[in-house]
C-alpha cells in the first residue's frame, strides 16, 4: 500500500449528526449509502463527489494527491420512524428497507419518498432482510414474517437475533438461542442447525457452502451445509458480533478481539488456529468489513479508529484516527471504491478509496 496515514482527512466526506449510527448499508446500485440513526431518521449520502479529491498516477510510480475543488453533496435526512431505527438493509426494489421500534417496516427510495410496507402495533421490527428473488422478511421477537411470493410466518424457539439471505437469495438464515434455522423460499421448509448457546450474528460464505454464527459465549460456530459437519472456533476474549467473509471465501474476519481475527475457509480444517491482523491497542475491534474485490479488511475499533489491513501482513493503513466514540457501522460499496462508516456519537463519513491507492493488479 502506498498512501498517507489518515485518509479520511484527504479523501473523506464527513458529517456530524445528533443521533447514534445504528447501521449503514449501500443501496444495490452502489449510488448511495444509507445510515440508520437512533432518532428514527435515515441519512442518505451520495457516493458521487463531483469535484472531489482524487489520485493521479505518476509516470515515475506512485500517485499524486489532488485536493477537492468542491465540497461534497449535503447529507439528506428523512424521518421514517417515530422512535429508533433498529434495522436496515438494501431493498431489491431500490433504496432501503428500515425497521423501527414503532412497529413500522418502511421502504425509503433514494429520492426521499417512502412507503409503509408493514405495521405491527406494540411490536418492534428488530431485524429486516431483502432478496431480489424472494422478497422481504422481518422479525419481531420469536416470529419471522416472509413477504415474498409465498407469504408465510415462522415461529422460532427463541427470540430472533439476526436474519441473512444466502448469496443466491433463496434461503434465509435465522439465528436464535440454540442454533440457526434455514428457511427455504421455494418450499418454505425449515432446516435446523442446532448448537447449544446464544447465536447472535450470522454470515454466509460467498459460495453458500458454509454458514457461521457469532455466539454470546465468546465463540464462533460454523456448519458445512452439504453434510451438516460442525466447525468449532473459540478462544475469543469477547463476543464476535461482526463477521465478514473475504470476496474469494478463503477466510472469515471477525471482531471479538483486540485485532481482527481471521479464520481459514479454503477449506477449514480441524484444529486450525486463527491469525490476527491490524493493530492492537487498549480498545477492542467493534466492526470488520472485507473488501468486495481485494484481500483487504477494514477494521473499526471501540476507540473510533478505522484501518485497513491484509491477512498475513503486519502493515496497516489508517483511515480514521482515534476518537471519542466507537465505530458502529462499517461497509464497503459494491465496487469497493468507497467505505462508509459511522460512530455511536453520530459521526458519518464516506471515504473514497480508488484502486490507485493499492498495489494490486488492475481489474479486468
The level of helicity is: under 10%
The assigned CATH architecture is 7 Propeller
| Count of individual beta strands | 32
The largest sheet, given as strand count, sense and whether it forms a barrel, is: 6 strands, antiparallel
Give the helix tally: 1
Task: Tell me the name of the CATH homologous superfamily.
Answer: YVTN repeat-like/Quinoprotein amine dehydrogenase
- State the strand order across the main sheet: 16-17-18-19-20-21
CATH top-level class? Mainly Beta
- What CATH calls the topology is Methylamine Dehydrogenase, Chain H
Number of individual domains: 1
Q: Structural class, from secondary structure content? A: mainly beta
Oligomer: single chain
Briefly say what this structure is.
This protein is mostly beta strands and 364 residues long. It has one helix spanning 8-11; strands at 12-16, 21-26, 32-37, 41-46, 54-57, 63-66, 76-79, 85-90, 96-100, 104-108, 114-119, 127-131, 135-140, 143-146, 152-155, 162-165, 171-184, 190-204, 210-215, 219-224, 229-233, 243-245, 251-254, 260-264, 275-277, 285-290, 297-301, 306-309, 316-320, 327-332, 338-343, 347-352.
